[in-house]
Recover the amino acids of this structure.
């Protein structure tokens, strides 16, 4: 493994030095190989290409690729952890939403039950109030009829007393004065006035 690391830069350098000869033999064809052959024949491009290869070899030898790849791996792990946290938060939010919706449905059902109970109670109270009012009206009507009957009885009794008093007075006058028809007519007028 160690020998491969030492021989890789040497192999790359020997391949790069062989490119100009390959380019002259091929005659700058088309495509990638043609472009590569042209880069090998142009001294400025070839020097820049060699500098890039040397830079990459030095960077690889110093462990830059490991650091870059390690940084990318750690960043990838951090992003995966953040995605997992976001997924967990989303699941919790979905559970909380479902729980809130269930509670809302339960509250709606409870509110509907309370409204139905209130309507039933209101109907019962109205029925009881109507019955109570009807009972009171019946009692008041009976009381009014009793008062009217009592007033009629009292009035009838007063008329009887007045008629009896008038008859007694007329009879006394007739008996005390024996004057005849005039006394009778006077007593009849007194009775008639007392009755009216």
């Amino acid at each position: 493994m160690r020998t491969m690391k030492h021989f890789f830069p040497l192999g790359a350098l020997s391949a790069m030095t062989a490119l100009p000869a390959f380019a002259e033999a091929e005659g700058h064809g088309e495509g990638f190989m043609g472009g590569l052959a042209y880069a090998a024949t142009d001294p400025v491009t070839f020097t820049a290409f060699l500098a890039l290869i040397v830079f990459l070899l030095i960077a690889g030898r110093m462990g830059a690729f490991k650091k870059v790849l390690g940084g990318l791996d750690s960043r990838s792990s951090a992003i995966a952890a953040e995605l997992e946290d976001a997924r967990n938060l989303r699941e919790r939010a979905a559970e909380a939403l479902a729980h809130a919706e269930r509670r809302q449905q339960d509250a709606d059902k409870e509110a509907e039950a309370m409204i139905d109970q209130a309507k039933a109670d209101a109907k019962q109270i109205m029925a009881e109030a109507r019955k109570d009012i009807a009972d009171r009206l019946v009692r008041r009507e009976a009381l009014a009829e009793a008062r009217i009957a009592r007033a009629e009885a009292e009035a009838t009794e007063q008329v009887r007393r007045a008629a009896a008093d008038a008859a007694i007075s007329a009879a006394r006058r007739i008996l005390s004065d024996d004057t005849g028809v005039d006394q009778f007519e006077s007593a009849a007028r007194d009775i008639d006035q007392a009755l009216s």
Notes: The chain has a mean pLDDT of 78. The two ends are 151 Å apart (CA to CA). The CA atoms of residues 100 and 120 lie 30 Å apart. The helical segments are 2-26, 31-41, 43-62, 64-176, 181-195.
